[in-house]
Amino acid sequence: MRSKILIPNLLVVCIAGALITFAHTRAAFAHSGTAEEQSACTPDVLSLCFWDIPSEDRIVACLNRNIKKLSPACRKVIDGPPDTAADKKTDKTKR
Asked: Both 13 and 50 in a single domain?
């Protein structure tokens, strides 16, 4: 009799876990880069950072650790735009 109660409860826990995982994964994709940025870095992520998937923070850290091995397109994404905080600081000192 106990197993008859345990199976439905286990099913509910599994479904709840799957829903939580799905919701978390969808939220993580909302914070990912643009489609172009993802396309530029997907091959590098798969070859260099496979074990860090699906953690976006770990993937970004991995890409930064392997910056010299990245494709030019992905390196451009990781480096970001040329207008950095150091450039802004230099602009303020010129005034």
From this structure: no
Give the SS3 label for residue 95: coil
Q: Which residues of 17-35 are buried (b: 16+ CB within 10 A; e: fewer)?
A: eeeeeeeeeeeeeeeeeee
Can you tell me the distance from the alpha carbon of 55 to that of 24, in angstroms, rounded to the nearest whole number? Answer: 11
In order along its 95 residues, the chain shows pLDDT tens digits of: 555 655 555 544 445 444 444 444 444 444 578 999 999 999 999 999 999 999 999 999 999 999 999 999 999 999 988 765 555 665 555 55
| Amino acid type, 5 | I
**71 and 43 together in one domain:** yes
- 65 is a domain residue: yes
Q: What is the pTM of this model?
A: 0.54
